[in-house]
Amino acid sequence: MTYIRITKQFSFETGHALYGYDGKCKNVHGHSYKLSVTVFGKPISDKNNVKYGMVIDFGDLKKIVKEEIVNVFDHATVFNKNTPHVELAKELEDRGHNVLLVDYQPTSEMMVIDFAKKIMKRLPEHITLHSLKLQETDSSFAEWYANDNL
Predict the structure, then answer these.
(1) N or C: more exposed end of the chain, with fewer CB within 10 A?
(2) Which residues are annotated as a binding site for Zn(2+)?
(3) Helices 58-65 and 108-122, packing angle to 10 deg
(4) In DSSP terms, which residues pair with 59 in a beta bridge?
(5) Residues with Cβ < 8 Å from 128, sequence gap 6 or more?
(6) 8 Å CB contact between 41 and 2
Protein backbone atom coordinates (compact mmCIF):
# COMPACT_ATOMS: atom_id res chain seq x y z
CA MET A 1 0.00 0.00 0.00
CA THR A 2 1.17 3.51 -0.81
CA TYR A 3 2.12 6.15 1.75
CA ILE A 4 -0.22 9.13 1.87
CA ARG A 5 -0.07 12.58 3.49
CA ILE A 6 -3.25 14.06 4.86
CA THR A 7 -3.73 17.58 6.19
CA LYS A 8 -6.24 19.08 8.61
CA GLN A 9 -6.50 22.84 9.09
CA PHE A 10 -7.36 24.68 12.29
CA SER A 11 -7.78 28.29 13.35
CA PHE A 12 -7.58 30.06 16.68
CA GLU A 13 -7.17 33.56 18.09
CA THR A 14 -4.19 34.23 20.34
CA GLY A 15 -2.56 37.30 21.83
CA HIS A 16 1.11 37.62 22.68
CA ALA A 17 3.97 40.03 23.22
CA LEU A 18 7.66 39.56 22.44
CA TYR A 19 9.72 40.70 25.39
CA GLY A 20 12.88 42.57 24.39
CA TYR A 21 11.91 42.80 20.73
CA ASP A 22 12.88 45.99 18.89
CA GLY A 23 9.67 46.44 16.90
CA LYS A 24 5.92 46.81 17.31
CA CYS A 25 5.50 43.18 18.40
CA LYS A 26 6.94 44.08 21.80
CA ASN A 27 3.43 45.37 22.49
CA VAL A 28 0.58 43.03 23.41
CA HIS A 29 -1.31 42.21 20.22
CA GLY A 30 -3.11 39.29 18.65
CA HIS A 31 -3.32 37.12 15.56
CA SER A 32 -5.90 34.97 13.85
CA TYR A 33 -3.65 31.93 13.54
CA LYS A 34 -4.15 29.21 10.96
CA LEU A 35 -2.49 25.87 11.65
CA SER A 36 -2.12 23.16 9.01
CA VAL A 37 -1.21 19.73 10.37
CA THR A 38 0.05 17.14 7.88
CA VAL A 39 0.57 13.51 8.86
CA PHE A 40 2.05 10.64 6.89
CA GLY A 41 1.14 6.97 6.81
CA LYS A 42 -0.41 4.08 4.93
CA PRO A 43 -4.17 3.75 4.65
CA ILE A 44 -5.53 0.96 6.85
CA SER A 45 -5.79 -2.15 4.68
CA ASP A 46 -7.85 -4.33 7.02
CA LYS A 47 -11.30 -4.43 5.41
CA ASN A 48 -12.86 -5.34 8.76
CA ASN A 49 -11.51 -2.19 10.43
CA VAL A 50 -14.10 0.61 10.64
CA LYS A 51 -11.32 3.01 9.58
CA TYR A 52 -10.52 0.95 6.46
CA GLY A 53 -8.93 3.10 3.76
CA MET A 54 -7.96 5.92 6.14
CA VAL A 55 -4.47 6.96 7.19
CA ILE A 56 -6.06 8.41 10.33
CA ASP A 57 -9.63 9.47 10.87
CA PHE A 58 -9.78 13.26 10.43
CA GLY A 59 -11.90 13.31 13.59
CA ASP A 60 -9.15 11.58 15.57
CA LEU A 61 -6.55 14.05 14.30
CA LYS A 62 -8.92 16.91 15.11
CA LYS A 63 -9.35 15.63 18.68
CA ILE A 64 -5.56 15.54 19.24
CA VAL A 65 -4.91 19.02 17.85
CA LYS A 66 -7.92 20.58 19.58
CA GLU A 67 -6.91 19.15 22.98
CA GLU A 68 -3.19 19.93 22.69
CA ILE A 69 -3.22 23.26 20.79
CA VAL A 70 -6.49 24.94 19.88
CA ASN A 71 -8.31 24.61 23.20
CA VAL A 72 -5.17 25.74 25.06
CA PHE A 73 -4.11 28.69 22.89
CA ASP A 74 -7.47 29.98 21.62
CA HIS A 75 -8.31 33.36 23.18
CA ALA A 76 -5.29 33.17 25.48
CA THR A 77 -2.49 35.69 25.79
CA VAL A 78 0.92 34.02 25.63
CA PHE A 79 4.01 35.29 27.41
CA ASN A 80 7.51 33.95 27.95
CA LYS A 81 7.54 33.07 31.65
CA ASN A 82 11.29 33.69 31.85
CA THR A 83 10.88 37.46 31.37
CA PRO A 84 9.40 40.35 33.35
CA HIS A 85 6.18 39.73 31.39
CA VAL A 86 5.26 37.36 34.22
CA GLU A 87 4.22 40.46 36.18
CA LEU A 88 1.89 41.53 33.38
CA ALA A 89 0.60 37.96 33.11
CA LYS A 90 -0.21 37.88 36.83
CA GLU A 91 -2.09 41.18 36.58
CA LEU A 92 -4.13 39.91 33.63
CA GLU A 93 -4.86 36.58 35.35
CA ASP A 94 -5.99 38.43 38.48
CA ARG A 95 -8.47 40.30 36.27
CA GLY A 96 -9.87 37.06 34.85
CA HIS A 97 -7.94 36.87 31.58
CA ASN A 98 -6.79 33.60 30.03
CA VAL A 99 -2.98 33.74 30.19
CA LEU A 100 -0.57 31.07 29.03
CA LEU A 101 3.04 31.14 30.23
CA VAL A 102 5.55 29.24 28.09
CA ASP A 103 9.28 28.48 28.32
CA TYR A 104 10.08 30.28 25.06
CA GLN A 105 9.67 33.56 23.21
CA PRO A 106 6.15 33.17 21.73
CA THR A 107 7.11 33.70 18.09
CA SER A 108 5.48 31.64 15.35
CA GLU A 109 8.77 29.78 14.95
CA MET A 110 8.93 28.72 18.59
CA MET A 111 5.21 28.00 18.81
CA VAL A 112 5.35 25.64 15.84
CA ILE A 113 8.23 23.72 17.49
CA ASP A 114 6.17 23.42 20.68
CA PHE A 115 3.12 22.30 18.71
CA ALA A 116 5.10 19.62 16.87
CA LYS A 117 6.33 18.10 20.14
CA LYS A 118 2.82 18.06 21.61
CA ILE A 119 1.17 16.53 18.54
CA MET A 120 3.87 13.87 18.01
CA LYS A 121 3.36 12.55 21.55
CA ARG A 122 -0.31 11.87 20.82
CA LEU A 123 -0.19 10.31 17.34
CA PRO A 124 -0.68 6.55 16.94
CA GLU A 125 2.56 4.61 16.35
CA HIS A 126 1.87 3.99 12.67
CA ILE A 127 1.33 7.71 11.93
CA THR A 128 4.18 10.21 11.50
CA LEU A 129 3.90 13.96 11.81
CA HIS A 130 5.11 15.23 8.45
CA SER A 131 4.79 19.00 8.79
CA LEU A 132 3.12 21.96 10.44
CA LYS A 133 2.44 25.38 9.01
CA LEU A 134 1.52 28.14 11.45
CA GLN A 135 0.27 31.25 9.72
CA GLU A 136 -0.02 34.42 11.81
CA THR A 137 -1.01 36.80 8.99
CA ASP A 138 -1.98 36.39 5.34
CA SER A 139 1.65 36.75 4.31
CA SER A 140 3.66 35.48 7.30
CA PHE A 141 4.06 31.91 8.52
CA ALA A 142 6.47 29.42 10.06
CA GLU A 143 6.82 25.84 8.88
CA TRP A 144 8.14 22.75 10.65
CA TYR A 145 9.11 19.61 8.69
CA ALA A 146 9.99 16.28 10.28
CA ASN A 147 12.68 15.62 7.66
CA ASP A 148 14.47 18.83 8.68
CA ASN A 149 14.60 17.65 12.30
CA LEU A 150 15.93 14.10 12.12
Answers:
(1) C
(2) 16, 29, 31
(3) 120
(4) none
(5) 39, 40, 41, 146
(6) no
CA 133-139-142 angle, to 5 degrees, is: 30
Tell me: the pLDDT tens digits for 17-64? 999 999 999 999 999 999 999 999 999 999 999 999 999 999 999 999
Helix (H, G, I), strand (E, B) or coil at 5: strand
Give buried/exposed letters for 14-41 (b at 16+ CB in 10 A, else e): bbbbbbeeeeeeeeeeebebbbebbbbb
**Do strands 76-80 and 29-41 pair parallel, antiparallel, or not at all (unpaired)?**
unpaired
At 14 the three-state DSSP class reads strand
Q: Are strands 29-41 and 4-16 parallel, antiparallel or unpaired?
A: antiparallel
Helix (H) / strand (E) element for 58: namely: helix 58-65
21: which residues sit within 8 A by CB, 6+ positions away? none
pLDDT per residue as tens digits for the range 122-135: 999 999 999 999 99
CA–CA distance, 77 with 97 (Å, rounded to integer):
8
pTM over 0.90: yes
Q: Please, are residues 61 and 55 in contact by the beta-carbon 8 Å criterion? A: no
**Catalytically active residues, by annotation:** 25, 75, 136
